[in-house]
Amino acid sequence: MFVGLAACGIAAMRRRSGVRVLIWLGIWSAMFGTLRLGASLTAVARLPQWFQVGVTYLDTLCVYLILVAGTRAWVELSAGKLRKFLWTVIYVGLAIALAGVVFFLFTGDNDKFIPYNNTLAACSLSVLLTVVSVPKLAHKFLTTPNSKVLLAGTLLFAMEALYTNVSRPLGYQSSTIWDSLGFAALLFSLGYAALQMVFESERRLLSLEGELAIAREIQTSILPSGSPELKNLCITAAYHPMTAVAGDFYDFIPVDQHRVGVLVADVSGHGVPAALIAAMMKMAVQSIVSCVHSPGDVLRGLNRMLSGQAADQFVTAAYLFIDTENYKACYSAAGHPPLLLSRAGTLHRIESNGLVFGVTPQPNYPVRDIPICPGDRLLLYTDGVIEPENAKGKPFGDAKLEQVVLGAPTCSPSELTDRLLNEIRAWQPASMAQQDDITLVVIDVR
Asked: Which residue has the higher pLDDT, 389 or 216?
């Protein structure tokens, strides 16, 4: 019972799918211990009176369900057809257990269906012993990396079970210590195999986390190291990925001290697949530098470079070209949230959208010409800014974004980005993790 409770406790602390085998081994071991405890008259006599009444009921449940718990532990170590066979054993075992318990409740006889239970146990043990004993079958149907210890424990348990089941009908009574030792051998061999699986999963996880850390460093390196310094412009960017790597991307394409192109893109999905497409965006940007002054040509060039490369993923993008020498800008987008222009206490939503990247090889991207003046504030962002939901399921939305932007007319671009990010965090419940990548670019015209 102690081993069973300890195994369940360790599994509860780890809280990963790979430790389910420890949970079922723990339940199996605890049930075996409960049966041994119930068989001890001295131990039962020491229990409270109200508990003594329930010992028979508990004993009946454990007798019928111990096979189900043990088979469920084996399921976590099996694969392919063996796994399907074990699930069949579980369902049949549950049916026998239900019949046995119901019969016991109405008649008081808890042995009626035990022969069926024992027959099922013998069949399943024979199959498991065959699989564990034959290396080719063990390699095919078991997920444990080393089956030698498992084979030894299963053989000892099978020999003890065979001896007990043959000797008792012939009138020979063997000590219950052999039952316990046989079960202990099987239990600890299964535990050893389970720990091998857990440690192997831990090693893979650590390796994956290391690779993700490297991937994040690489992705960070393809983003701008800072904001460009231009005359009459102040630019700040904020980039907050949802996971270690993200599908958001932004870049600055400076031409001279007065002109710059600003690109913001969002790849559908999250994690590594989206991050790979975002990395391709960086390479694609290098091919459209010659047409940096034309948002339509920029987006068509990016779409052409990404067509056929993004598989089932789509990319939205917005591109803004600013010329502070002539105080004008031009803007175009591909299925992206609108550009926001804050001017004299009013927020203007500028939309000029074509199709997202990857839909058609030659889309049309309309361009909006925008006269700008000192005091204007421009905002480019991905939908991770407006989609976070509060506890009631209400999204942050355009209205809340407009309220925050208009409520901070004297804030610098960096102060506004910090305020926006704080408002988004406050909007979401503290227990809720970030739901999407967030990218935000704020541009002040001086």
From this structure: 389
Rounded Cα distance, 97 and 95, in Å? 5
Kindly tell me if the per-residue pLDDT of 42 is higher than 60. Answer: no
Q: Encoding tokens for residue 376?
A: 């204007």
Lowest mean pLDDT among 126-130, 211-215, 239-243, 386-390: 211-215
Domain of 13, CATH number, reads 1.20.1070
Across-strand partners of 250?
264
| 205, 230: one domain | no
Co-location of 63 and 165 in the same domain: yes
Query: CA 68 to CA 94: how far, in whole Å?
Result: 7
Tokens 């052409």, residue? Answer: 304
Q: State the number of CA atoms in the 13 A half-sphere of 189 facing the CB.
A: 22
**Helices and strands of the chain, counted as H and E runs:** 13, 11
Quickly state the pLDDT bin for 236 (edges 50, 70, 90): very high
Q: Which domain holds residue 401?
A: 225-445
CATH assignment of the domain containing 231: 3.60.40.10
Please tell me whether residues 243 and 391 are part of one structural domain.
Answer: yes
Q: Where are the alpha helices (DSSP H) in 111-175?
A: 114-133, 135-141, 148-167
Q: Using 50, 70 and 90 to split pLDDT, how confident is the model at 51? A: low
| Tally of domains in the chain | 2
Among 56-65, 207-216, 324-333, top mean pLDDT goes to 324-333
| Residue 443, pLDDT above cutoff 90 | yes
Are 179 and 42 part of one and the same domain?
yes
What single-letter amino acid sits at 108? G
* Same domain as 246, residue 174: no
Residue 320 has φ and ψ, to the nearest 5°, of -125, 125
Judged on CB neighbours under 10 Å (0-12, 13-18, 19+), 6 is: middle
Cα 8 to chain centroid, rounded? 23
Q: Which amino acid is at 72?
A: R
Residue type, 273: P
Structure tokens at 285: 């940007």
Do 92 and 29 lie in one domain? The reply is: yes
Residues 334 and 205 in one domain: no
Give the model confidence (pLDDT) of 28-38 as tens digits. 888 888 887 76
- Is 255 in the same domain as 195? no
The answer to whether 303 and 363 have CB atoms below 8 angstroms apart is yes
